[in-house]
């Protein structure tokens, strides 16, 4: 039986993978493709996470696809609504029939002789192998099998339940119970007000504060525009409004951090009143946008604190006890349920092993090209969204650019494209971000350069110009022919070793 071959193999059927398939169908209609999804359902993050209150941490006018308007009233949307939106997109464009569920990709091997990737996956405990011309990784940036939990002392002594949000148990009943949520990131500030609706009390226990910003759950301007204009027109205007405001705010935070910090903390004081200790519980030690800001819709976290249903404790954990947590300050927190909202484990290319012409590629030593490809690795692109804006903004641009590459290779008769380092390029960490989940794992990720096209821009407008309008043949991206006997009689160049 012949091994199945497709022109493009997409890995991951989440927000990015479904978007990649749409762009491929639109811009490269003659290409065959398949999507390998390790889990049993569409949706990625939005299907995996089931914790109470799960919602977007950015507005849906930028987290939504460029080609499919977000029509719901709420701009800060709940997880199930986002999941419906992704699945609806797959159905509308007949993408779902291309998905192979429960196909966990393990290894991808490139051959210059045939200019193909051989991709090995596991399905029902058995190996499955496909070949493809181009490999498009849309598998996210974290390990789906387990979140990150520090080794807290005494966890075995605790008599209640300990839960990580990434694996929320369906049978967990916390109504009328004392809950401690460990963490201060996007997940924690989502969980606390939601659980506080029925719990006896919810305490958010944090080692250090995070910037928390309230914004309306509904975008009044967007809803007004949608009532007056065609859906795509209204969506496009709102999308650019939000992109430009975010860029302005991010750049202001970089140029005048103290001024932005003062404004953000002033807004928290307005919500919580003069008697609340904002200095201890909501004043971070870092500048705004050194880590991602936490968004709370309609000030729900602040309202829960003001009502007494929730509280914030800033301290360090000494040990878990039978009935809760002993803090280093000497205080104790009683708990029936402890939620460890302590973050993700970052993972590059879903942990897949990459082999180029028989040699295992150490991608941590590679350089990132335009934030989407790796030096000396041919015909492979990976989606990684923005840290300071919505993921999908970059995902859409990356997928469009992959289509530009594919069409360019077809026009010029090339079999592969590969970014090559052009002289000395100074290396820098891939992400300029101080969040714990990033600093723990950044060594496993590629480097970025200090000049284009190796520099990773956290700027949608700049990337839009570069990826949509910039030259494909930029002197760094090299194009070539396969080296095997079946190659056409043209000057050929073998891939140089990585």
List keywords for this structure.
498 residues, alpha/beta, FAD/NAD(P)-binding domain, 2 domains, 9-stranded mixed β-sheet, 5-stranded parallel β-sheet, 13 helices, 25 strands, 29% helix, 22% strand, disordered C terminus
Number of domains: 2
Instruction: Label the overall shape.
Output: globular
Radius of gyration over C-alpha positions, nearest whole angstrom:
24 Å
Q: Which structural class do the helices and strands define? A: alpha/beta
Major β-sheet profile: 9 strands, mixed
Which parts are unreliable, with pLDDT below 50 for 5 consecutive residues or more?
487-498
CATH architecture of the largest domain: 3-Layer(bba) Sandwich
Helix content: 25-40%
- In round numbers, the mean pLDDT is 91
CATH class label of the largest domain = Alpha Beta
Looking at the structure, the CATH topology of the largest domain is FAD/NAD(P)-binding domain
Structure in a nutshell:
With 498 residues, the chain is an alpha/beta fold. Helix content is 29%, strand content 22%. Strands 1, 2, 3, 4, 5, 6, 17, 18 and 21 form a 9-stranded mixed beta sheet that branches. A 5-stranded parallel beta sheet has the order 7-16-8-9-12.
Describe the structure.
The chain is of the alpha/beta class and 498 residues long. The chain has 2 domains: 4-144 and 346-480, FAD/NAD(P)-binding domain (3-Layer(bba) Sandwich), CATH 3.50.50; 155-340, FAD/NAD(P)-binding domain. It contains 13 helices and 25 strands. The chain has helices at residues 15-27, 45-48, 60-63, 79-92, 186-195, 220-228, 231-255, 257-272, 278-281, 300-307, 391-412, 436-439, 460-469, and strands at 4-11, 33-36, 99-100, 104-111, 116-123, 126-137, 161-163, 178-182, 201-206, 212-215, 294-297, 310-314, 317-320, 324-327, 332-334, 337-340, 353-356, 359-360, 368-369, 373-374, 380-382, 416-419, 427-429, 447-449, 477-480. The strands form 7 sheets. Strands 1, 2, 3, 4, 5, 6, 17, 18 and 21 form a 9-stranded mixed sheet that branches. Strands 7-16-8-9-12 form a 5-stranded parallel sheet. Strand 4 (104-111) and strand 5 form a beta hairpin. The longest helix has 25 residues, at 231-255. It is globular and about 70 Å long. It starts with a strand and ends in an 18-residue tail after the last strand. Mean pLDDT is 91; it is low at 487-498. One of its GO terms (molecular function) is N,N-dimethylaniline monooxygenase activity. InterPro entries: FAD-binding_MO (IPR051820), FAD/NAD-bd_sf (IPR036188), Flavin_mOase-like (IPR020946). Belongs to the FAD-binding monooxygenase family.
